[in-house]
Structures are given as C-alpha cells and as structure tokens.
C-alpha cells in the first residue's frame, strides 16, 4: 500500500475515533473507560501510522506504544479510586 494511502486511512481512522470520543463523552461519565480505550487506540494510530514506528527498532516502538497504556492505566486507576 502506498504511503500516502496509508496516511489517509490513518487520518480517517483518527477522525472516526475523535467523533467516537465526543459521542462517548456526551453519553455520560460511566463510559470513561471506553474513552480511555479510544485514546489509547488513537495514540497507537499516531505512533504506528504517522510516526511510522512500524519500521523502527522494537525498543523504540514498544516505548512509544507503552506510554499511552501506562498513562491510561494511571488515569483509570485515579478514576476508580475517586469513586
């Protein structure tokens, strides 16, 4: 697949996930975990699609993809403890 087509597909997926985030936010606070999962998906798309980490060394790719998971876990833990 050409690089420009891949970037357009990543952009379309990011737009779709952004719309999903807005819709989930309007649904209420009970869906905060779903919003976090969408955010992790968006971070993965940015890292793999736009930053092209698919071809990067494994260590860099794992570090960039894991920061979103760690951040989502910390925010989710904070939400769970505050209830």
Automatic annotation (TrEMBL):
Its main location: membrane. InterPro entries: Cyt_c_oxidase_su4_prok (IPR005171). Coiled coil: none annotated. Keywords: Cell membrane, Membrane, Transmembrane, Transmembrane helix. One of its GO terms (cellular component) is plasma membrane. It is found in: Cell membrane. It is a multi-pass membrane protein. It comes from the Bacteria. Signal peptide: none annotated. The chain crosses the membrane at residues 31-51, 63-81. This is Cytochrome C oxidase subunit IV family protein. It comes from Pseudomonas koreensis. The lineage of its organism: Bacteria, Pseudomonadati, Pseudomonadota, Gammaproteobacteria, Pseudomonadales.
